[in-house]
Structures are given as structure tokens and as C-alpha cells.
């Protein structure tokens, strides 16, 4: 009897309960996503305070990313065994405790252990936030639930570096973790108050120990390879080669095992659904491009244009303006239109923004930097909401947590892959362009010869003139390299539109609405 009651769908929330529930879930998501980027700019402060090198300090980011990537796809399996509300609550509470431990860390090993715990418990939080929100809203307003979720997911990565830099500069690095404590306590209290009687059925499925072990091996190897590849010069390093081989072999065994296991830890059969596959790949590759550029643009501004970390962060901040203003509008019009049209428009806007950035010069002004960022906010308002709606289209409620967890896992992995690829590709393109520019530095080039003579007339010696030319060539090469990546990003976004149109989402919000109606 209890099992039957637990499986019965819960009615949508109304009034103040709906508002409080939405705020609670959104706060938890914001806290989670913020923590993926807030520590990035604080690595020098953390490394100096703990007496370790900056290279060792980057493990603060890597440890969180590895644990988080492993735990996200386990959401569906954990939900079956624990219940979605209890699992969500446990994630928030343990996240707060691990954040407190991170702030207290007296040594690097203690901090890394705390970050591993923090990343592991953070994994189910984002997929379950989608599930809880979809179940809380009436069928017709399910897209609005996704718009609330999307706003926090889009703003947090931009706010993280700004907040992290300000805290490190003006207070001390432990506070980048302590800020999670009050937010987490409020989110946990409100979540328990609203959702405690809305838990899902518990099913004691056997533990897929082999699948879990293979997942940990291949995801851990791949994540460490991506994070350390640039520092170790990629495949010229034996360590990177070994990690790559381990990841590929473990992944192959993992796929075969999970597709044949009676109780798989990750439901890979979801990829047999056209909507899930098309929506997940389009969303994940698009997110990888967005996140890679989110890292590349501030890095370029700081290393080659002379911006400070705070100034570079502020250049990125306006992206959230239109995203916040327009996401609720997207949620309102989504039930009345085909989500593929909104997603297509979003991808075209992203392509336009990256094309505009591909025309930057070393003398770029603030207006030229801010205009594409503002326009990108319009595209972001139509990025997550329709694609998540397409991905979950037609799925029964009991598969929503597993589908959301697997989709978010692929998205997070693509974000990490995008970051690594963009940083490495920028280095390679910069070196190539520098070599091409250096070829022009010879006495047989009248333009170069005249420039050297003019520098000599201005009081520069020949070595000084050559040094100045090399400095200018280095800056210009970096500029051309970053322009190449912006241009390629624009082209890939246009190409991804084809993936959107292989899907066949249900009309009139049936996709998200069906999920909402059956999410329990």
C-alpha cells in the first residue's frame, strides 16, 4: 500500500509553496554551479597560503571535477535506492558540511579530500533539481520550471570568477567555501519544508559493482587527463598516454557491461531514443563550446589585452542580463511553439556572437567586447530550456532522474573537454601564427626593414628593435589564434542545428509537461 502511494503522482504545488520550492531548488543549483568556477581565480591564494606550488594547487579544481563527473550519472540509481527528495536533501546537507571542511583545511591533502567529498555529493543535485521543479509545476507551466532552472545555471559560471576574485582579494580564500553555508542551510530548510512529503518510490535494485568500478576508472582517468594534459604537453607525456589508454579501454568495457547488465548503474539504453540522443548531444557540444570560450575570453583579455581578473570578469557579466530577463518569456512561449525553433534561433545567435568576436583586434574597445556578450544573453535564454525539454520529451516519469543525470553528465564532460581543447588549440594556433609572422622578419622584406630603421631613428638599438617586433608579433599571434577559435565556434554552432532537427519533440509542452505530470 505504501509503495503504491509513493508511486502515485503528486499534485503540482501552488501559491507560496510553489514560490518557496522554486527558490529553494534554485538556490541549491546556484550554490552547486557557482562552486565549479569560484575557486579557479583563487588558486594562487590557496597555493601560497598552504605552501604548495600553483601546479599542485590546481588539484583543488581537478579533485572536485573528477568526483562530480563520477557521481552525476549515478543519480538515477541512487534515486531508486534513496528517493529523490531524501537524496536531494542529503546532497545539500553534505555539500554544506564539505564546504565548511574546505574552508577549515590546514593542509592541501585535507583540502583535496574535502573537495572530493564536495564534488561527489554535488553530483545528484542538478539532475534532481530538474526533476523536482518539473514535478512542482502544472503541466502547462512545466517550461516555466525549466526557465527558472536555466537562469541559475547560466548566471553562476559567470558570477563565480568575479565573486571568487573579490573574496580572495578583499577577505581570504576560505570564504569562497564558507559562502555556501548560509545559502545551503536556507535551501535545505526550505526544501524539507516544501518537498518532504513528495518523495519518490524506493526500489532496492542490486548494486552494479562492476559497472560502478568501470565508471570510476574511465571517468577519473579521462578527467585527470583533460586537467593535466596541457601542463604535461599532452601525448608527449607517458602519463597522459597511459591515462588515455585506461580511459578508452575502461569505457569500452563499461558500455558493453551496462548494455547487458540486468540492473545497470547507468541506463545507456536512453540513447536509443532519438529525442534524448539529439537533444543531449546538441546541448552538450554547445555547452562545451560556450564553456571553452567562457574560459578563453577572460584568459585572452588578461594575458594579451592587459585587463585585470576583475575587469575581465566584468566584461563577461552582462551575459546574464538578457538571460535573466528573457528566460521566463521563453518558458511562457515554449508550450505554444516547437522548441526546435527556439533552440535553432539560440544557436544562430551564438554563432553571430562568436563571428563578431572573431573580428577582434589587439586594439579592441570596451563597447566591442560588451556588445556580443549582451547579445549572447539572448541566445542563452533559449539554450537550456528548449533543449532540456527536447531531451526529456516522451520519457515516463520514473526515467526522468536517470535521463537528467546522464544528460547532465555528458554536458559536464563536454564542458571539461571544451576547456582543455580550447586552451591547447589556442597555444598551437598562437605558435603557428607567430612562426608565420616571424618569417617576415628579414632584411629582404622592405616593410620590416623600414620599421627597423624607424625604430633605430627613434633611438632603439637593433636588438631592441628586434625584441619589440617579437613582442608585437607574440601579441598579434595570440590575437589571431583566439580569432580562429571564435570563428570555428561560430561554424560548429551552425552545424549543430542539424542535430536539433533530427528530434521529434511532442507539441504544446507535452514533452516537459508529461515529465512534470509523471515525475514521481
Automatic annotation (TrEMBL):
Keyword tags: Cell membrane, Membrane, Transmembrane, Transmembrane helix, Transport
Highest taxon of source: Bacteria
Topology of this chain in the membrane: Multi-pass membrane protein
Protein localization: Cell membrane
One of the record's GO cellular component terms: plasma membrane
Limits of the Major facilitator superfamily (MFS) profile domain: 21-508
Segments crossing the lipid bilayer: 15-34, 87-110, 146-167, 173-195, 207-226, 238-260, 281-301, 307-329, 341-357, 369-392, 485-503
GO MF entries: transmembrane transporter activity
Signal sequence bounds: none
Statement: the UniProt record of this protein carries the keyword Disulfide bond: no
Homology family: Belongs to the major facilitator superfamily. EmrB family.
Name of this protein: Multidrug export protein EmrB
Annotated gene: emrB_1
